[in-house]
Amino acid sequence: MDQSACKLTLVYPAAFEAQLVELLMDSDPPLAGFTSWGADGHGHTFEKANMRERVRGRVARGVLVLLLERQRLPELLEAIRTKVAIPDLLYWIEPIEGFGRLSPAS
To answer: Measured between alpha carbons, how far is 95 from 63 in angstroms, rounded to an integer?
Structure first.
């Protein structure tokens, strides 16, 4: 990846993970890959939380990160916004200072 690479982080209600992953897997041109995991959201407002989440004091969230060329961001964000329409989806973008794979010494 060159200097135009960035990291996109998405945080969303866990129930929307399958739809989001499907959209990203069908991206054209294909994305190099991404990583997702389950998380708990914490905060002061729980108006949209279900009863179980209110009792637990946290809401179920998914987190997904992917590295991509910065010029692909507007189109990808628009596709997510219009094709999946996930309520309460948060995102942020960070520059990538380095990227690579580490292999054990032979």
So the answer is: 18
pLDDT in tens, 69-81: 999 999 999 999 9
Q: Which residue has the tokens 């990846």?
A: 1
- Strands of the sheet containing 59-69, edge to edge, are 34-41, 59-69, 5-13, 90-95
Query: How far apart are alpha carbons 8 and 65 in whole angstroms?
Result: 6
- For the chain, which domains are there? 5-95 (3.30.70.120)
- The span from the CA of 74 to the CA of 78, in Å, is 6
The two structure tokens encoding residue 54: 């209110």
1 — pLDDT class (breaks 50, 70, 90): very low
d(C-alpha 103, C-alpha 79), whole Å: 36
